[in-house]
Specification:
Oligomer: single chain
Distance between the termini: 55 Å
Radius of gyration: 16 Å
Helix content: 40-55%
Largest sheet: 4 strands, antiparallel
Order of helices and strands: EHEEHHEH
Strand order of the largest sheet: 2-3-1-4
Strand content: 25-35%
Length: 128
């Protein structure tokens, strides 16, 4: 931002739970509220929010000066930490980190579904 203009970007963000573990309904509700709190605190807007069993899709608007890894750390690290604090039994159920460390971000969503599907196919757990 300078004195002549303000710039914003729209990001499509996709991340998954560790080992594709399914989130329970109470987990999803808690995570949605946490994401809204983070967006308010960090001054970005969540335009679209879709939390499924093991996958989160967000569309956010933020200033071009924002450092996306900081936003991701606040979203994923904070949601896991506060979820485990509010529902200690959840941590026992997951037994590992809640979120996969990898995430996908794009400024447009044309290829998002294809890339996510390729990633899922390449990282499927081995069936015995």
């Amino acid at each position: 931002m300078n004195k002549y203009h303000v710039s914003f970007l729209q990001y499509h963000i996709n991340f998954i739970t560790k080992y594709f573990r399914s989130l329970q309904d109470e987990d999803k509700t808690f995570i949605k509220k946490h994401f809204q709190s983070v967006s308010t605190r960090h001054e970005f807007k969540i335009v679209e929010k879709d939390i499924r069993e093991c996958r989160v899709n967000l569309i956010i608007h933020c200033k071009t000066t924002y450092y996306i890894p900081n936003i991701m750390k606040a979203l994923t690290g904070g949601s896991a930490r506060f979820l485990y604090k509010a529902f200690p039994e959840t941590k026992l159920n997951y037994k590992v980190s809640l979120w996969e460390q990898k995430y996908f971000i794009a400024t447009e969503d044309t290829q998002l579904d294809k890339i996510v599907q390729r990633y899922r196919d390449a990282n499927k757990p081995i069936q015995n």
